[in-house]
Amino acid sequence: MAFWDNLFPGRAAQSDMGGAASNTIDLTKRRPSVSLTKQGAATGNLRVNLSWRMRTSDLEGRSRQSGRLLRNPSQLFKPEVVQAHTQGMVNVDLDLGCLYELTDGSKGVVQPLGGFFGDLNGAPYVKLSGDDRFGGSSGETIFINLDHKDEIKRLLFFAYIYDQTPAFDRTHAKVTLYPSNGPRIEIDLDERAPQARSCAVFTVDNTKGELTVRREVRFVYGFQAELDRLYGWGLQWGRGYKTKA
User: Fold this and answer.
1) Residue pair 134/16 in contact by the 8 Å Cβ criterion
2) The domain 31-52+93-231: what is its CATH number?
3) What is the SS3 assignment for the chain?
4) CB 120 within 8 A of CB 54
5) Which InterPro entries does the record associate with it (predicted)?
6) 31 CB contacts (<8 Å, ≥6 apart)?
7) Is the dihedral of CA 201, 221, 93, 128 positive or negative?
8) Residue 201: which region, alpha, beta or left (left: phi > 0; alpha: psi -120 to 50)?
9) What are phi and psi of 21, to 5 degrees?
10) Are 56 and 4 in contact (CB under 8 A)?
11) Model confidence over 33-65: pLDDT tens digits?
């Protein structure tokens, strides 16, 4: 077993499971969409999870510093960092957000920035579970109450780097959808975009009662206002801040 398998045991399990593919749908450029309705997964709570870690090349770079870490053990307890585009180091704080539009015309956003955590049992039927600032094993999760799918017109899920050096190209980020029934759906943010600060990951559209998930993976150099402009949401945006952890 390789050293990296000890760091990320899930990777070895996935590669060794011959039947793993049947439990996962990968949305790619060649297969960009899937119908939740046709999968029998358009009811209950849909869980959307964003997770990320350093790319292997960055981990290899850090392994060469192991001697220094042993001489200063307190460094082991600091949040993981990645190499920025300068000589400095930055923490990577990826956030997961969701723009929503309901069938009654109401629009808004669910995201950590500004504390817009949403509501699962009332409008917008989208709820953020919390804000993971350091890319922990659980990542960030948003729930959608699909028992109210008839009240949801469209959703746009996006990831962004909060107030820090762009580093999408130095992290391996993945968004995973866990329907109440059927296989999970995975979308890798695997395109290199060194200067991007935000990424439109996927949409959920309700067309004549059919819910369809469509991969976007569209990197932009701005934040929510630019995503809003590209997808025609029409919201008003101002500068937002997080409270200190």
Assistant:
1) no
2) 2.60.60.30
3) CCHHHHHCHHHHHHHHCCCHHHHEEECCCCCCEEECCCCCCCCCEEEEEEEEEECHHHHHHHHCCHHHHHHCHHHHHCCCEEECCCCCEEECCEEEEEEEEECCCCEEEEECCCCECEECCCCCCEEECCCCCCCCCCCEEEEEEHHHHHHEEEEEEEEEECCCCCCHHHEEEEEEEECCCCCEEEEEECCCCCCCCEEEEEEEEEECCEEEEEEEEEEECCCHHHHHHHHCCCCCCCCCCCCCC
4) no
5) TerD
6) none
7) negative
8) alpha
9) -60, -30
10) yes
11) 999 999 999 999 999 999 887 655 544 444 444
At 165, which amino acid appears?
T
The residue type of 185 is I
Peptide bond into 124 cis (omega under 30): yes
Question: Which amino acid is present at 39?
Answer: Q
- Distances in Å between the alpha carbon of 89 and those of 94, 167, 199? 16, 11, 22
- The whole-number average pLDDT for the span 155-176 is 82
Single-letter code of the amino acid located at 122 = G
Closest CA to 197 of 232, 233, 171: 171
pLDDT one-digit tens code per residue, 76-132: 444 444 433 333 444 667 889 999 999 999 999 999 888 899 999 999 999 998 654
Which pair of tokens denotes residue 151? 């009240």
